[in-house]
């Protein structure tokens, strides 16, 4: 079986990380998997890129220009929506032609247009589409923020002043799928339930399969060595916050700052024995706001350093306001680090309350603080850590996730096999 995984980027972003890990899991379980990307960042042989062309940049710029005009020349929300009006036809590429299954992931920002996706469907090749957010089920948004228009028809997006473009993209997506079947895979049960409500996806197969992780890489290591390698203190408990861009409001940094400051007010002794490590871009902008000693690690791309950062931590905190199935929780747990997060999206499917971490009430900084203190001071930390490792091994191992995907591939290939 030959599978072509299609994603905009090879490494940058959560979807790219998940797609790359899935490719490795499939290869390790007997599938000939390749990845096709626009932005190739390594020399990995099984990752191929679109043919080099000035058009790649033009596709991206043209889409942003159209959105900018419909935002009345304002930048707000410019990168929160996608209209897929421009992209590359991949159906003539040899990697496409040799594939038995086409597996789409995050294909936005000029990778594929809606017309390009329709051309893929028209070839008759089986298509699986992993949803890393709600965009495939809406007109233009990646996170619907409580808006339920997509359940009937997107007419006017809260992120866009003009409803005319929204309705046009909705109709194009509807036409794109007309007469075709796609298997949509959501990384969490929460997203699957949201997707099934979407009018665009009526009659399509929607299933839930989690992301995978290589536990040979992400695994417990010596904590003191990990801290030394990251220039973190060895005599303090470490609270870890991770985000590609720390100041992204969706990641809930404001609630994190409030929770840490509440902790210090309630437990002043923490100033002497606890610190905060912040991994991600713009980390230094947040460090000064915290009542605990803080260690901005900045944006780190080297895998060994990322693994060390997790292993250096005593608790990982993820106060996201919207999220699917965060890779960061999986990575922390695979290193035996208990996690604390809000009850949003797929987070409660990963964090089992007071078993491998703490699930706080949504947008409740006081409960988030309570959860951090629970992990650091109240619970049996070693027991939490063991439960983390067991949860990852049971649910996110390469073998488990690859098996579920292979079953889906075989199911959608079966009708074609029977006809021949």
Verbal overview:
40% of the residues lie in helices and 17% in strands. It has helices spanning 14-27, 55-70, 94-97, 114-122, 163-177, 189-196, 223-229, 253-266, 270-273, 283-287, 303-312, 327-334, 347-350, 365-378, 381-395, 398-419, and strands at 2-9, 32-39, 47-49, 101-104, 127-131, 183-186, 205-208, 237-245, 274-281, 294-298, 315-318, 339-342, 357-360. The strands form two sheets. Strands 3-2-1-4-5-6-7 form a seven-stranded parallel sheet. Strands 10-9-8-11-12-13 form a six-stranded parallel sheet, sandwiched between helices. Strand 6 (183-186), helix 6 and strand 7 (205-208) form a beta-alpha-beta unit. The chain starts with a strand and ends with a helix. The mean pLDDT is 94.
In short:
With 420 residues, the protein is of the alpha/beta class.
Largest sheet, spatial ordering of strands: 3-2-1-4-5-6-7
**Helix content percent band:** 40-55%
- The number of distinct β-strands equals 13
Question: How much is the average pLDDT?
Answer: 94
Count of discrete alpha- or pi-helical segments spanning 4 or more residues: 16
- What multimeric state do the chains show? single chain
What value does the Rg take, in angstroms? 22 Å
Feature tags:
40% helix, seven-stranded parallel sheet, globular, six-stranded parallel sheet, 17% strand, alpha/beta
Helices and strands in order, then pairings?
Elements: E1 2-9, H1 14-27, E2 32-39, E3 47-49, H2 55-70, H3 94-97, E4 101-104, H4 114-122, E5 127-131, H5 163-177, E6 183-186, H6 189-196, E7 205-208, H7 223-229, E8 237-245, H8 253-266, H9 270-273, E9 274-281, H10 283-287, E10 294-298, H11 303-312, E11 315-318, H12 327-334, E12 339-342, H13 347-350, E13 357-360, H14 365-378, H15 381-395, H16 398-419
Parallel strand pairs: 1-2, 1-4, 2-3, 4-5, 5-6, 6-7, 8-9, 8-11, 9-10, 11-12, 12-13
Helix pairs in contact: 1-16, 4-5, 7-11, 8-14
């Amino acid at each position: 079986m030959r599978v072509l995984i299609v994603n905009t980027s090879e490494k940058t972003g959560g979807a790219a990380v998940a797609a790359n890990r899935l490719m490795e899991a499939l290869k390790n379980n007997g599938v000939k998997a390749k990845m096709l990307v626009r932005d190739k960042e390594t020399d990995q042989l099984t990752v191929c890129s679109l043919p080099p062309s000035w058009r790649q940049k033009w596709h991206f710029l043209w889409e942003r220009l159209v959105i900018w005009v419909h935002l009345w020349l304002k930048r707000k929300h410019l990168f929160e929506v996608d209209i897929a009006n421009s992209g590359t036809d991949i159906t003539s590429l040899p990697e496409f032609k040799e594939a038995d299954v086409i597996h789409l992931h995050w294909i936005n920002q000029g990778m594929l247009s809606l017309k390009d996706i329709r051309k893929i469907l028209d070839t008759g090749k089986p298509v699986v589409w992993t949803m890393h957010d709600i965009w495939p089920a809406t007109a233009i948004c990646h996170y619907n923020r409580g808006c339920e228009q997509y359940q009937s028809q997107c007419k006017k997006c809260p992120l866009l002043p003009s409803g005319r473009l929204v309705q046009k993209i909705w109709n194009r997506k509807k036409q794109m799928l007309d007469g075709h079947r796609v298997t949509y895979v959501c990384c969490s049960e929460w997203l699957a339930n949201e997707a099934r409500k979407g009018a665009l996806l009526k009659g399509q197969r929607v299933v839930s399969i989690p992301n995978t992780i290589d536990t040979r890489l992400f695994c417990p290591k010596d904590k003191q060595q990990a801290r030394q390698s990251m220039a973190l203190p060895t005599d303090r408990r470490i609270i870890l916050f991770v985000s590609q861009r720390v100041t992204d409001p969706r990641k809930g940094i404001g609630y994190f700052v409030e929770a840490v400051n509440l902790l210090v007010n309630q437990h002043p002794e923490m100033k002497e024995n606890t610190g905060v490590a912040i991994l991600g871009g713009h980390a230094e902008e947040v460090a000064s706001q915290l009542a605990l000693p803080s260690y901005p690690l900045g944006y780190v791309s080297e895998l060994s350093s990322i693994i060390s950062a997790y292993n250096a931590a005593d608790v990982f905190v993820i106060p996201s306001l919207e999220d699917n199935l965060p890779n960061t929780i999986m990575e922390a747990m695979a290193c035996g680090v208990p996690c604390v997060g809000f009850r949003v999206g797929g987070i409660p499917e990963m964090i089992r309350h007071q078993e491998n971490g703490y699930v706080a009430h949504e947008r409740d900084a006081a409960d988030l603080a309570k959860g951090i203190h629970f992990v650091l001071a109240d619970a049996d930390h070693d027991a939490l850590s063991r439960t983390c490792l067991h949860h990852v091994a049971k649910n996110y191992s390469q073998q488990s996730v690859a098996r579920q995907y292979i079953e889906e591939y075989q199911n959608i290939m079966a009708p074609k096999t029977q006809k021949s």
